[in-house]
Design brief:
The complex is a heterodimer. Chain A has a six-stranded mixed β-sheet, sandwiched between helices. By secondary structure, chain A is of the alpha+beta class. Helices cover 68% and strands 3% of the residues of chain B. In chain B, helix 3 runs parallel beside helix 6 and helix 9 packs antiparallel against helix 12. The two termini of chain B are 29 Å apart. In chain B, 32% of the residues are buried. Classes of the chains: A alpha+beta, B mainly alpha. Bound molecules: adenosine-5'-triphosphate and magnesium ion.
């Protein structure tokens, strides 16, 4: 167990800079999730923590010790690779046992730990098979097994559940959380999955183009996104954005979109005439006869929820409600927006106002 | 798809096999005839085999020692070249170094001239330079192993490079993270996965050394003389002993078959299937 400190880390591939001064503080025992669009540097950051990628500038410390020049095998970390990286000439059993054998654990302990991990991962039937005889999801579970048999300082997971079906994903999510609670080991976890990020993380790090956009607890990021990017990235379905201006009507500030739509506005420090981006989450919109008049475009029922896409002028907004709505396309509907749920961003800097 | 009748295949392979195997069969026929019968009308059907040549060759202590030399030199050379070639390829494949491709290309340059060009320099080196007191590298088994290495090692590096490059680097990385040392990564992960390439390299370098004549004829005379050169001793001024030569040739074939048989099963494709995603 250890804390991890990523201090002003820069990564260059030749003359190409892909990481621009990343700072992340991870406390001992914390579960940190890295999210961000493809190519933003999540895997690269993880590989730098593992010691597989040289750190161009800045420092990485594990347990208060700078590890920039320490070999992977001496960092005492376990990692699940995005590509699995299973040993193809070894059976599932030997794949999972490999780190224990390298650590020269006694045979009885290896046997017991591998069997145990196989049980957790539902791999018991496959212990004698080779990786090429497994499905993608089974391979991914073997990769997980190889990590969880160990008791390292830090776990690094690079999208470990991406190839599993929905049901197994939920089971594994619970298993990983349980593992974390049991061992209390620091975990750095990369995912594309919103639900994984929101449910597992103590702390989410949102990255974009080799930069950290915002760090915070899941709910903090959901409630107070620092900029348009984070607001759009966290939460599913993602937040509605409408571009417009602050105007004063009847002595009160109001938001008027470029298309002329007026939307409810909370108390704000935004100045009159300021160009802003107006954000509202689909699940924060109620529908009814009052509110903002919109024209229904598409209604998508999923059983438990209904998502309604509606437009007014050029602005398309979607709402997510619990009720079953039987609105017909092109009919009129009212979107009720509580001003306290509204997020305002400066249009130019994209920062929260 | 309609299944093709097996007849066509059977006929095709019968013809091909006959064409390939007939010379070997003919060699065998010659080896089991007494000298007097050799120049009579050729007889394809084997009747009343005469084992005298075999008794003579096997009974010849000199030929037996040539045979042993051949086995030791070829095998020693093949193993040495394959192992050294593997490590060279691992370094070329995994480590950052400047001028890597130039080094790789440079290794093959000494195969660009005919081996005869190197004869005199090699002879001088082995008689004048590589000596310890009275001891010289000329006409020793180790000397021949090393000489063949100069030709086989570049070849081994070239055949093994694609194999080592083909092992995903993530496997090394996963092993490092799992706590393996560089040595363990090589012996536990990379080396076993290179098995097919190693087997091919082993066979080809072995065959090169086994069949080599020119260098062996010049750089050995008695102690390290090999079977191929021994063969030529039966071309004498008083005539050529074809029966004996055919018998020796059969003897040279046998170890080659054994080596092929042992190594062949390792030449399988797809050892790294399932290692990494897609
Ligand atoms: N060896 C390399 N040479 C040059 N650029 C590289 C190299 N490896 C990665 N990159 C670049 O670094 C950036 C970050 O890559 P990285 O693999 O960390 O992305 P990621 O966030 O993990 O993406 P994904 O979600 O698709 O896995 C990308 O723009 C990629 O093109
Ligand atoms: Mg990645």
């Amino acid at each position: 167990m250890a804390n991890v400190k990523i201090d002003n880390v820069i990564k260059r591939y030749g003359s190409l800079q892909v990481m621009h001064g990343v700072n992340v503080d991870i406390e001992d025992g914390e579960f940190v999730v890295l999210v961000g669009p493809s190519g933003c540097g999540k895997s690269t950051l993880l590989r730098m923590l593992a010691g597989l990628e040289e750190i161009s500038e800045g420092t990485v410390s594990i347990g208060d010790k700078v590890v920039n020049d320490i070999l992977p095998k001496e960092r005492d970390i376990a990692m699940v690779f995005q590509s699995y990286a299973l040993y193809p000439h070894k059976t599932v059993y030997d794949n999972i046992a490999f780190p224990l054998k390298m650590a020269k654990r006694p045979a009885a302990e290896i046997e017991q730990k591998v069997t145990n991990a196989a049980e957790i991962l539902d791999l018991t039937k496959y212990l004698k098979r080779y990786p090429k005889e497994l499905s993608g999801g089974q391979r991914q579970r073997v990769a997980m097994g190889r990590a969880i048999v160990r008791d390292p300082q830090v776990f690094l997971f690079d999208e470990p559940l991406s190839n599993l079906d929905a049901k197994l994903r939920v089971t594994m999510r619970v298993e990983i959380k349980e593992l974390h609670q049991r061992l209390g080991t620091t975990i750095v976890y990369v995912t594309h999955d919103q639900i994984e990020a929101m449910t597992m993380a103590d702390k989410i790090v949102v990255m974009r183009d080799g930069r950290v956009e915002q760090i915070g607890s899941p709910l903090d990021l959901y409630d107070n996104p620092g900029n348009v990017f984070v607001a759009g990235f966290i939460g599913s379905p993602s937040m509605n954005f409408v571009h417009g201006k602050i105007e004063v009507k009847d002595g009160k500030k109001a938001f008027v979109s470029d298309g002329g739509l007026t939307l409810p506005l909370p108390e704000t420090t935004a100045a009159e005439g300021q160009s802003v981006t107006y954000g509202i989450r689909p699940e924060h919109i109620q529908i009814g006869d009052t509110g903002v008049k919109m024209q229904v475009v598409v209604v998508e029922p999923t059983g438990s929820e209904t998502q309604i896409f509606a437009k007014a002028g050029n602005d398309l907004i979607d709402a997510l409600v619990k009720d079953r709505v039987m609105a017909k396309p092109r009919s009129e509907i009212g979107f009720i927006i509580d001003p306290k749920d509204v997020h305002l961003f400066d249009r130019k800097t994209e920062k929260r106002i | 798809m309609r299944k093709q009748s097996p007849i066509v295949g059977i006929i095709f392979w019968t013809v091909v096999s006959t064409l390939t195997l007939f010379p070997i069969y003919w060699l065998f026929v010659i080896s089991v005839k007494p000298a007097v019968q050799l120049f009579s009308t050729p007889d394809v059907i084997l009747s009343d085999p005469f084992w005298g040549n075999y008794a003579k060759v096997w009974g010849d202590r000199l030929l037996r020692s040539y045979m042993l030399n051949s086995v030791i030199i070829s095998t020693g050379n093949a193993i040495l070249c394959t192992i050294l070639g593997f490590f060279a390829c691992y370094a070329l494949s995994r480590f950052k170094m400047s001028g890597k491709e130039s080094i790789f290309f440079w290794t093959i340059t000494n195969r660009m001239a005919p081996p005869a060009v190197f004869l005199l320099p090699l002879f001088l080196l082995m008689t004048q330079v590589y000596t310890i007191g009275e001891w010289r590298l000329l006409d020793t088994q180790i000397g021949m192993i090393l000489v063949y290495c100069t030709f086989n090692l570049p070849f081994a590096i070239w055949t093994l490079r694609p194999t080592v490059d083909g092992i995903p680097k993530e496997l090394d990385e996963a092993a490092f993270v799992d706590g393996a040392s560089s040595w363990k990564v090589i012996t536990e992960i990379v080396f076993p996965l290179c098995r097919p390439g190693l087997a091919v390299t082993l066979i080809l370098t072995w065959v090169f050394a086994w069949n080599e004549y020119l260098l062996a004829a010049t750089l050995t005379n008695f102690n390290a003389r090999t079977l191929t050169t021994g063969l030529s001793e039966y071309v004498t001024t008083t005539g050529t002993e074809w029966g004996i030569m055919a018998t020796i040739s059969v003897f040279t074939l046998i170890p080659a078959l054994i080596v092929f048989g042992l190594v062949q099963k390792h030449i399988v494709a797809g050892l790294t299937f399932g290692a990494v995603k897609g």
